[in-house]
Amino acid sequence: MVVIDYANRGNLRKNLTKVVKSDWNQKLFMLYRIISGLIEIHEQNLVHCDFHDGNILNHDEDQVFISDLGLCRPIKTFMKKDDIYGVIPFLAPEILRGKQYTPASDIYSFSMIMWEFTSGVPPFNDRAHDLQLSLSICKGNY
């Protein structure tokens, strides 16, 4: 069991409006904190497998926590070919094609978080999160 401090400010999705209003230094610092946490996971030879804005918790101005480690797996662990976990807009194309989760797939998910920080909206917020979106991501047709 892992016990972390209570993140009294909720998750990143809930706080997106506040984040967007922050200055660039604050945004970059928060992104740095997030990627530092992801690097710690990868340095333990693990892949998160469900990295998205709902799993990044804000504790205070200086602390963020990466949560929901229930799908976290050792890097070399093979899942069944049809096992796809995560939130479609944050899934790397190779995952949607049935490939294994890798640190690179977590980094793709982080890039979608970066998208949110710069655009102010979640990725693909104007589309249904369905098979058509999955196919568009796989083909690179956004």
Total strands: the figure is: 4
Which structural class best describes the helix and strand composition?
A: mainly alpha
Ranges with pLDDT <50 over ≥5 residues?
A: none
Which whole number gives the mean pLDDT? 88
Q: Which strands sit side by side, in order, in the main sheet?
A: 1-4
The fraction of residues in strands falls at 5-15%
Question: How many domains in all?
Answer: 1
How is the biggest beta sheet arranged? 2 strands, antiparallel
Gyration radius (Cα, Å) is 15 Å
CATH architecture: Orthogonal Bundle
Number of contiguous helices: 5
Approximately how much helix is present in the residues?
25-40%
User: In CATH terms, what is the fold-level topology?
Assistant: Transferase(Phosphotransferase), domain 1
Give, in order, the helices and strands.
HHEEEEHHH
Shape: globular
CATH superfamily: Transferase(Phosphotransferase) domain 1
Distance between the termini: 39 Å
CATH class: Mainly Alpha
Pfam families: Pkinase
Protein name: Kinase-like domain-containing protein
Organism: Rhizophagus clarus
Domain Protein kinase: 1-142
List keywords for this structure.
7% strand; 5 helices; Transferase(Phosphotransferase), domain 1; serine/threonine-protein kinase; 39% helix; 142 residues; mainly alpha; nucleotide-binding
